[in-house]
Amino acid sequence: GTARFTIDPDFALGTVDPRLYGTFVEHMGRCVYTGIHEPDHETADEHGFRGDVSRLVRELGTGLVRYPGGNFVSGYHWEDGIGPAADRPRRLDLAWRSIETNQVGTDEFLGWARRQGVEPMMAVNLGTRGIDAARALVEYCNIPGGTAWSDLRVKNGVREPHGVRLWCLGNEMDGPWQTGHTTAREYGRLAAEAGKSMHQVDPSIELVACGSSNARMPTFGEWERQVLHETYDEADYLSLHAYYEETGGDRASFLASGAQMDAYISDVVSTADHVRAVRRSTKRMKLSFDEWNVWYQSRFPGERALPLEERPRLIEDTYSVTDAAVVGSLLMTLLRHADRVAVACLAQLVNVIGPIRSEPGGPSWRQTTFHPFALTARHARGTVLRTEVSGPVIETEKHGPVQALDTVSTLDPESGELTVLAVNRHQEQSLRLSAALRGLSAPYRVTEHLQIADPDPDAANTEAEPDRVVPRPVRDTAVSAEGELEAVLPPVSWSVIRLT
Ligand code: AHR
Fold first, then answer.
1. Which residues of 395-431 are buried (b: 16+ CB within 10 A; e: fewer)?
2. 230 noted as active-site residue
3. Range(s) for CATH 3.20.20.80 in the chain?
4. Considering only CA atoms, which residue is closest to atom 9 of ligand 1?
5. What is residue 419's predicted lDDT score, i.e. its pLDDT?
6. Which residues does the UniProt record annotate as the domain Alpha-L-arabinofuranosidase C-terminal (predicted)?
């Protein structure tokens, strides 16, 4: 079949915030230790961070990294992670039943982020702690000096303030698994007061209030409404989290996960706008989708079944071509909501459901999902254009009928580059893409079409075969004499088509 749509610069929908290409480093499993940080590794820099992983993080093109959790943050004493490394306590991390050595803490992470050229997004503990620890951390990070906490940072060797702009007010406080789990009203009050204090320390920071842990939570909708009611003045963003996996062999629904993400975002936007109306506010709450990915969560045994270890191997999912198509498609969904979703974090960055994998003392490599993320981050810039697809439809059990073609286009006003991202969700049939190019100043031609596709949709990259799945150039994609972009998309494939 053929899927048709029109690309027209007049159909501008929003601007891509580079913070949409965020990721997440949690003190969990091997994300930090033997992930980004491994002093004994042959590629380690003078700060103990792995050079090979740093290079891959750069290539991934992530503009923002959230830290230090996740569930971890809800039991974290940030003071354990500062000062001379040899004096730092070994703590029980009860979120992941692990031993936390605290060898990496606030200064190490923020130093790494600065050297990597990524913006940090920090989270404060509103599980076991509260206002005082939160405002002290902002003081430690952002006040130049002359106060107890800022002078301590200087004493610890960091002269210049870290200048962290974006802060999460806790993590997933609606989840019964969360340390300090609470009700929307109680969390909303605490978040508002912690946020007020943090703003008193540094009025320039931006704050993210916790939304639901996912749209299936029994409190979803009502949680958002009550939390926003309490935090509307202090918060700049409301968070969303979602993980997707194939269940019961229902791959058609899995490939259409973007439909669920789309509905979830729309529901949160509606709820936020309801609160705005009730409060007669002119402020339009933005969204931070600060955890999203494919995660084979049904294979996770649960925290209590975990052995008590340092840097255990936790949720090191290996991703397939199908997973890469889904990750690419979820990114497109985020882009289509660029008018309201300003921040998003692929969870997580290394090893723990990460696009990058690394072995202790060994190599690092790109998972299949690395590629759609990196290419989208590099090329989908500027203005997102609204497109309406008409073409073959797939019936799915979980999401009803969905278009076989998932697509989004961006136009960079500076370079004039037009980028078309496309996923064929069909599992057996190729799809013809036909896009009418309208209202563009000059005749556009295709400069590159890269594609992830494989006869085996379960193919993956492993330590033994790290480049089994890579984006490959497609030659026949072109703009016809009639001004139509024509491409062929194999089953379960992801594509980026670039035009100038
Ligand atoms: O990313 C893994 C975990 O998923 C995070 O710690 C938590 O916030 C979410 O439930």
1. ebeebeebbbbbbbbbbbeeeebbbbbbbbbbeeeeb
2. no
3. 17-379
4. 70
5. 98
6. 290-493
Residues of the chain with CATH 2.60.40.1180: 2-9+385-499
| Ligand 1 center–CA 26 separation, angstroms | 8
Rounded (10°) CA dihedral 438, 447, 435, 444: 20
Question: To the nearest whole number, what is the mean pLDDT of the chain?
Answer: 97
Q: Clarify whether 59 is annotated catalytic.
A: no
DSSP, residue by residue, 63-128: -EEEES-SGGGGG--GGGGSS-GGGPPPEEETTTTEEE--SS-HHHHHHHHHHHT-EEEEEE--SS
Instruction: Kindly indicate the confidence band of residue 443, based on its pLDDT and cuts at 50, 70 and 90.
Output: confident
230 lines ligand 1 (CB under 6 A): no
Give yes or no for residue 100 CB within 6 A of ligand 1. no
Lowest-pLDDT range of 137-146, 303-312, 319-328: 303-312
The length of the chain in residues reads 500
On whether ipTM exceeds 0.90, the answer is: yes
Give which of 421, 413, 419 is closest to 389, Cα–Cα: 421
- Alpha carbon of 136 to ligand 1 centroid (Å): 25
Helix (H, G, I), strand (E, B) or coil at 342: strand
Q: Give the Cα separation of 77 and 83 in Å (integer).
A: 13
The closest-lying atom of ligand 1 relative to the alpha carbon of residue 96 is 6
Ligand 1 pocket, residue 123 CB under 6 Å: no
CA distances from 397 to 249, 257, 329, 400, 407 (A): 11, 11, 18, 6, 21
Band (pLDDT 50/70/90 cuts) for residue 201 is very high
Say whether pLDDT at 144 is over 90: yes
Structure confidence by residue, pLDDT tens digits, 212-265: 999 999 999 999 999 999 999 999 999 999 999 999 999 999 999 999 999 999
Supply the residue whose CA is at minimum distance from atom 7 of ligand 1. 70
CATH 2.60.40.1180 fits 2-9+385-499, yes or no: yes
- Predicted confidence band of residue 295 (pLDDT cuts 50, 70, 90): very high
User: What DSSP designation does 12 have?
Assistant: E
The rounded Å distance from CA 243 to ligand 1 centre is: 9
Q: How far is the C-alpha of 256 from the C-alpha of 259, rounded, in Å?
A: 6
Query: Partners of 246 in the beta sheet?
Result: none
Using DSSP bridges, classify how beta strands 98-100 and 91-93 pair: parallel, antiparallel or unpaired: antiparallel
Query: To test the ligand 1 pocket, which listed residue (32, 71, 244, 288) has its Cβ within 8 A of the most ligand atoms?
Result: 71
Burial of 322 (0-12, 13-18, 19+ CB in 10 A): buried
Closest residue to atom 5 of ligand 1, CA basis: 70
291 Cβ closer than 6 Å to some ligand 1 atom: yes
Residue range 17-379 forms a domain whose CATH class is alpha beta
In angstroms, what is the span from residue 115 Cα to ligand 1's centroid? 26
Q: Looking at residue 344, what is its pLDDT?
A: 98
